[in-house]
Specification:
402 residues, alpha+beta, 2 domains, seven-stranded antiparallel β-sheet, five-stranded mixed β-sheet, 11 helices, globular
Length: 402
């Protein structure tokens, strides 16, 4: 199995400055390669510059600025060029598919936050001992940087990435050959129905409360964003007060993100420890959070009719605050490591199907929380009924595989 480990780095002031310079130089390399591709396409009879051609110029680029590009890892610079090449491949794939293309854009220094080292030992080295809370990672041009290793690393370190989040630095290790550690068999199978009122409801009738991290910090976040909005957006030189206000907003968003991630990990681990098989709805979160299309007014050219956009925006915010996609991805990873099974089932009509008689009707769902079957008269919690239907469909999958 492949596994990723993310650890907090504790660089010195000089090392932090060097890390920022490394990101800045890789950002310049990325933008320079993008500019060359644009110019070649526009002025050279639509000639396309490939990754191989740009990578062959790296030796000259490194020699041109001996104090800048030449001090960083050659393989990490190749990874940055490969990153741009993947962006162009995705762009052309979307063009051929008739989707919104999204041409690759130039990156600002503040928005280029990751440098990847493709192989451990090539420009980087992970130095760790078992149960050592102060391990180190050696980076070319920077030196040995202390790392707070809060858990043991299993498997073989394959790639190393350095990532900046606000004023914090992290090292991300991707390891392969990680062996699973199966948990004892419990004999329990459960279905879960995720939602916004409750984080999820299982087929046993238990409701996991929704922590609503974004809603709880909405007031503090709004105050910080209002203070940031008082500064002009387009200025040649940003003041220290402007940068401090932007850091405040970013810090609040980072705190919400960490709280949500911690909750997802702990909740998923509790599910994996308690059940052998977990069924869940396969949801299209991107489609569910898409904004409604505008409704032009045929009687008044240039005017639009109400489309429920304001109400939909509130629902979208609640869905994204819960973070279904991240939670289900974490649940699948933990289940794989523990030898458990997760089954994604069709989400259509799970909350409109009676768990007793199987009758499907829109009128069965009286309110958000109340389910009343128009055929057999079953009265129950709507989320509980949905979880029971998820469990039933997961059981059908297991029977088909047996």
């Amino acid at each position: 199995m492949l596994r990723a480990y993310k650890f907090l780095m504790r660089p010195t002031a000089r090392q932090a400055q060097a890390l920022a310079e490394m990101l800045g130089d890789h950002c310049s390399l990325y933008n320079g390669a993008l500019q060359e591709r644009r110019d070649a396409w526009r002025h050279s009879s639509k000639t396309s510059v490939t990754y191989g051609g740009r990578s062959a110029q790296l030796k000259e680029i490194r020699a041109f600025g001996p104090g800048r590009q030449g001090r960083w890892s050659f393989s990490s610079q190749q990874a940055t060029l490969r990153r741009l090449d993947k962006a162009f491949q995705a762009f052309f794939r979307r063009v051929k598919a008739g989707q919104t293309p999204g041409y690759p854009r130039f990156r600002g220094v503040g928005r280029f936050d990751t440098v990847i080292f493709p192989r451990d030992g090539d420009g980087c080295r992970w130095d760790s001992t078992p149960h050592d809370a102060q391990s180190r990672v050696r980076l070319q041009g920077i030196g040995h940087v202390r790392v707070h290793q809060h858990r043991a690393v299993r498997g073989r370190v394959k790639t190393i990435a350095v990532k900046r989040e606000g004023r914090r630095w992290y090292v991300v290790l991707t390891c392969d050959q990680v062996e699973a550690e199966p948990l004892p068999v419990t004999g329990s199978t459960v279905g879960i129905d995720v939602g916004t009122v409750h984080f999820f409801t299982d087929s046993n009738g238990n409701h996991e409360p929704n922590p609503r991290f974004l809603s709880k910090m909405a007031g503090e976040l709004a105050t910080a964003q209002q203070h940031l909005s008082t500064f002009p957006r387009r200025t040649k030189r940003r003041t220290s007060q402007h940068r401090a206000a932007a850091r405040k907003v970013a810090k609040l968003h980072a705190r919400i993100r960490r709280q949500r991630l911690d909750h997802h990990h702990k909740t998923a681990l509790a599910l994996v420890r308690a059940h052998d098989v977990i069924g869940y709805e396969e949801l299209n979160t991107a489609g569910m959070t898409r904004s409604p299309l505008p409704k032009p007014d045929s009687e008044q050219p240039g005017a639009f009719l109400p489309n429920g956009g304001a109400a939909k925006a509130g629902l979208n915010r609640s869905i994204l605050d819960v973070g279904w996609g991240q939670f289900l991805a974490i649940l699948a990873n933990k289940a794989e490591s523990a030898g458990r099974r997760v089954i994604a089932v069709d989400a259509r009509n799970t909350s409109r199907t009676c768990s007793e008689c199987g009758h499907v009707a829109r009128r069965n769902r009286v309110t958000q929380a109340r389910f009343e079957c128009v055929s057999c008269g079953l009265i129950a919690n709507a989320d509980h009924v949905g979880a029971l239907n998820v469990l039933s469909r997961a059981g059908l999958v297991l029977c088909a595989e047996a």
